[in-house]
Design goal:
Distance between the termini of chain A: 35 Å
Mean pLDDT of chain A: 78
Largest sheet of chain B: none
Structural class of chain A: mainly alpha
Strand content of chain A: 5-15%
Number of strands of chain A: 1
Largest interface: A-B, 30 and 57 residues
Helix content of chain A: 40-55%
Radius of gyration of chain B: 20 Å
Number of helices of chain A: 1
Order of helices and strands of chain B: HEHHHHHHHHHHHHHHHHH
Largest sheet of chain A: none
Number of strands of chain B: 1
Number of helices of chain B: 18
Oligomer: heterodimer
Shape of chain B: globular
Number of domains of chain B: 1
Shape of chain A: elongated
Distance between the termini of chain B: 44 Å
Mean pLDDT of chain B: 83
Order of helices and strands of chain A: EH
Structural class of chain B: mainly alpha
Low-confidence stretches of chain B: 1-12
Strand content of chain B: under 5%
Amino acid sequence: MAAPLQHHSFSRTRVDLIAIVIGLTLAALVRFNILPSIPF
Amino acid sequence: MSAHTIPSPAETRVPVPTESLRALLPGVALLFGIGILGKALERAPSLIHTRYPHLFIPHIEYVLWAILLGLAVSNTVGVSARFRPGVATYELWLKLGIVLVGAKFLLQDVLHIGGLSLALVAVELILSLSVMTLLGRIFKLPPKLTSLLAIGSSICGVTAIMAAQGAIEPEEEDTSTAIAAILTLGAIALVTFPAIGHFLHMSQQGYGVWAGLAVDNTAESLVTGALYGQDAGRWAILVKTARSSFIGFVVLGYAVYWSSRGLAPNVKHKGLFLWQKFPKFILGFMAISILATVGFFTASQLTSLSNLSRWAFLPAFAGVGLRTNLRDLVGQGWRPLVVGILGEIFIALVTLALVYWSYSHGVTR
């Protein structure tokens, strides 16, 4: 199997930062009752 | 890297579409589709049992369903190029889930169990590095392959191996062999650890701490914990996160060792090197945990965040199955695998003994 794209890729740090930004954004949306509770 | 499985993409790099984020959609849809199908299949036995009460149908957790479905896809029809960029985002979902699960940990828990696990991790690190190096010599593995196996088994599996790749400049084949060995061992842990945990009647916390200490890859560690129970999964994440924070120190040690032999580039700025290798998503986890500790969220909001973290983990579970190609894993030659298996068995037993000792002496709650 060929490896997925090697170029045009995010660094690991960038993935980490995206995860942090999305996580904190979701936390803010939940905190200020903008995002409703989504049952699992 | 020659690929034997879908490489754990965001462990170091996540493929990005050249034109737009639309290229990610098929793979992301596949991840969520498999995860949601896994959830549906988890509920199916109770529905069938209602209609046919005489039938015995075992209950299988959605975590296991998601992995099995992913494995079935990757080992039959395979993951086509169209889906690969999106499937590779499973690591992003995993990290997002870890950031959000910080809401379930008050800071005092993090410091308490984190402090304990740091001590256990230190012991685990020394043992892993020593045992893997010794076994590598006994089985006459190439020295850099031995280094990669030692780094992968002591810290965080594929992430650590990929982080070491640029630092110690191993042969490409060594890297893929080490990754395949670590992924194979992770797959074995998924099956064996929950069985051992049930056999020993381990508590959720004790088992989770053990899974976090002994299973190398973050994704497999989470899944191995989650297969035992939701709480075990959370503890596994916490301990695994503490373990991952050591990555820079271990890789730096090996980089300095190989550069002193003239077989790797010099590390000029060690502080910068440590920061570059530090897994930054841990900071997000800590931030959410601190906010939860200071009462920024209400109880229902904490539950909402916990649910969101479980939704984020769902595609990550599917990704673990989708990236694993069993034929390729066993085609790597027997010696690295034997070294890996022997080393991991030793590490698993020692960490199990450490966890048992910690609990029996009241070191943990």
